[in-house]
Amino acid sequence: MTASRLMKKTNDKRRRTFNNRSSPTATIKSLPKDMLVEVVARVASHSITDLHNMKMCCADFLDAADDNHVWRHVSLDKLPLIQWFPNDKALSFLKRCRESGNTESLYREGLQEYFSYPKGNIRGLESLKMAAEKGHTDAKYMYGMILLCSEDNELRTQGLEHMRFLRKSKCIIRCRKNVVQTAKFRWKNNGTLACKPTPLCHDKNTCKGWSVKKGQWLLLNDDDDDIELCEYCRWDHEIEFFLSVI
């Protein structure tokens, strides 16, 4: 066999090997639609920027990104809490998020509606409730604390359920810090919340309180919630903090 024929045979073999390899596009097209949607949704839940870049990669990702499941999980971290000067594109984006049941969108909408009216807004409270029940932790904290600030025992019981969930999940401190950030937007007590609700603990004169160290309240980290003293005093102190920033 001559050198030229040997070279031609080698090149042909290389071409066949290359052609038999699956291209990235072919691999993506071979995936089921629901799997593609789940992949895109996970990217969207971490970064809206990464979602945008992913949509630019190929038509399959672009198509999958239009699924409601993706919109339900897309992160809004890059968007300001309040759209002071929203354009049509931003409004359309947020509307699609709301319609798809995006919990962060429901939470933001609930905050705006509840704290933007003189006597509160039922629809705003409903949005907070929906976001809380879907697992949004900041919404659970805000909704739970609003209920604890009422004078209705049934509502306070519901509020305790949300707060106990957060306490068990070790995320009270993070939610509290986020509320402080939220308060910077001047969403203040609109008259709906009682300024001094009836204490949950009915034995203030004899109760030893919750986590009293060195003569003062200590609410620095979630590890403090492992201390089993008076739970009601613990939430009374949380209410006091909540009303001081809202």
Automatic annotation (TrEMBL):
Residues 25-74 form the F-box domain. Residues 1-24 are annotated as: Disordered. It comes from Abrus precatorius. Residues 1-18 have a biased composition (Basic residues). This is F-box protein At2g35280-like. Coiled coil: none annotated. The lineage of its organism: Eukaryota, Viridiplantae, Streptophyta, Embryophyta, Tracheophyta. The gene is LOC113857549. It comes from the Eukaryota.
